[in-house]
């Protein structure tokens, strides 16, 4: 799906072209350079229809603002990165400087063969102080969207990907009774300004993660929930903000209720600004499989997906995001002994995508898009293998009639992976964080080639 119901911003095009010229030099991106990476890059679509994905299938890469833009200084996370004894091993800093290098990154993504880009806009840039909206920052995202349009990329835009304005966090974040109205005001403003260039809008990235963490078994040391509880106490003291809370920090039940209400109001605000804009959200899911004994799959699903799948039924689509499977007992069991583990400690299990889309499509009854799937590894041959198996399994589900309309990998770039800093490598493109030089990995050429052919 592509909407072209608004004029491009001509001033941005001039600036973009300039940036792009410089950027192309930075990555050595010249016509034909990608073809050298992949012998199949210009191959015609295969005659073998059994390998093809549905017409108009979306193939994309995802990023999230705070993880790639750099210097997102009015956000809660930037503050948390700088409190003493905080929860992050290293600050995000310049990240991938995508804030300035977006034009080259988008050109590279398109040249690789993808037809869509999923990214997030940063509320803390757009509304750095309560009620004070920045047209300059809205213009920035308009230029990002214009770059996508120039390359004929469908745009999937997340309005909230974990980070939020510091002023909002200081007032209790999603537990603040005023949160839904504050979020809706931002959604309305951003949709009015940018909506005509957005093909798929999402209110929230993985709003169910706070609940999901309660089901996770931690190998050793304090659990993530304990780490978050300590971080919250430390942050409140260091920031002298007794009400401070965040996406992960605070009372889980209140956060969930606040996020559900904020999704509802945010979605209504987006629709009031642009009624035809498809709106949904992105759910974190694992392929839940029963533990050999004492299986609690149904209970887990009701707890972490239930209210969100209900919300999805009133959306235009649902984005699902999967990385591995979980054997569910009273909690998720640790990965089976001897299983190959990723840099995140997850079991290497690409077929999770198949289980997740089958379940989500049945429950949500709206079109499904895989909006994140990928693997953290230093060994790019394992990444290629991961994508090969993931897509083979996805194709099986589609061939069986599951309504899946797109696949977006995580991630375009090696980026700042939250509590893990820069160590895990999810990107199909490596980033030298001193020079900001991009290097396309073989997995980038591999996946781009599948995207271009719309076939395995
Ligand atoms: C998040 C991303 C994250 C990725 C890999 C998802 O939970 O949406 O921001 O980097 O997983 O861990």
Which regions contain 5 or more consecutive residues with pLDDT less than 50?
A: 1-42
Rg over C-alpha atoms, rounded to the nearest angstrom: 21 Å
User: What's the helical proportion of residues?
Assistant: 40-55%
Bound molecules: beta-D-glucopyranose
Beta-strand percentage range: 5-15%
Tally the beta strands.
12
Strand order of the largest sheet: 1-2-3-4-5-7-9-10
Q: Supply the number of helical segments.
A: 17
Q: From the helix content, strand content and strand pairing, which structural class follows?
A: alpha/beta
Order of helices and strands: HHEHHHEHHEHHEHHHEEHHEEHEHEEEH
Q: For the terminal residues, how far apart are their CA atoms?
A: 22 Å
Mean pLDDT: 91
Strand count, sense and closure of the main sheet? Answer: 8 strands, parallel, barrel
Describe the global form.
Answer: globular
């Amino acid at each position: 799906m592509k909407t072209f119901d608004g004029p491009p911003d001509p001033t941005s095009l001039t600036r973009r072209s300039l940036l792009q010229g410089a950027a192309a030099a930075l990555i050595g991106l010249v016509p034909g350079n990608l073809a050298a990476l992949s012998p199949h890059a210009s191959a015609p679509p295969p005659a073998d229809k059994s390998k093809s994905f549905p017409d108009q299938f979306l193939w994309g890469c995802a990023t999230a603002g705070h993880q790639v833009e750099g210097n997102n200084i009015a956000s809660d996370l930037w503050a948390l990165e700088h409190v003493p004894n905080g929860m992050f091993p290293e600050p995000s800093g310049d990240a991938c400087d995508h804030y300035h290098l977006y034009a080259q990154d988008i050109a590279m993504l398109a040249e690789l063969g993808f037809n869509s880009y999923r990214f997030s806009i940063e509320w803390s840039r757009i509304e750095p102080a309560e009620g004070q909206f920045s047209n300059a920052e809205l213009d920035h995202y308009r230029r990002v969207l214009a770059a996508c349009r120039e390359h004929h990329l469908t745009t999937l835009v997340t309005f909230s990907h974990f980070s939020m304005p510091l002023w909002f966090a200081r007032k209790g974040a999603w537990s603040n009774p005023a949160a839904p109205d504050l979020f809706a005001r931002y959604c309305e403003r951003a949709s009015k300004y940018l909506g005509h260039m957005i093909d798929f809008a999402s209110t929230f990235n993985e709003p169910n993660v706070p609940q999901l963490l309660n089901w996770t078994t931690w190998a050793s040391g304090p659990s993530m929930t304990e780490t978050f509880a300590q971080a919250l106490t430390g942050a409140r003291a260091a920031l002298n903000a007794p009400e401070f809370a965040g996406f992960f920090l605070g009372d889980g039940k209140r956060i969930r209720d606040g996020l559900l209400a904020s999704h509802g109001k945010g979605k209504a605000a987006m629709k009031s600004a642009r009624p035809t804009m498809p709106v949904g959200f992105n759910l974190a899911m694992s392929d839940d499989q029963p533990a050999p004994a004492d299986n609690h799959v149904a209970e887990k699903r009701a707890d972490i997906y239930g209210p969100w799948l209900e919300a999805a039924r009133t959306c235009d689509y649902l984005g699902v995001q999967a990385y591995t499977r979980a054997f569910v007992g009273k909690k998720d069991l640790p990965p089976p002994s001897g299983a190959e583990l990723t840099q995140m400690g997850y079991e290497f299990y690409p077929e999770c995508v198949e289980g997740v889309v089958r379940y989500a499509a049945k429950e949500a009854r709206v079109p499904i898009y895989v909006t994140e799937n990928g693997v953290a590894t230093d060994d790019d041959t394992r990444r290629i293998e991961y994508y090969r198996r993931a897509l083979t399994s996805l194709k099986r589900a589609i061939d069986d009639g599951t309504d899946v309309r797109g696949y977006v990998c995580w991630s375009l770039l090696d980026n700042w992976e939250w509590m893990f800093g820069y160590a895990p490598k999810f990107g199909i493109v490596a980033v030298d964080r001193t020079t900001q030089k991009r290097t396309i990995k073989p997995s980038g050429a591999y996946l781009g080639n599948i995207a271009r052919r719309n076939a395995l």
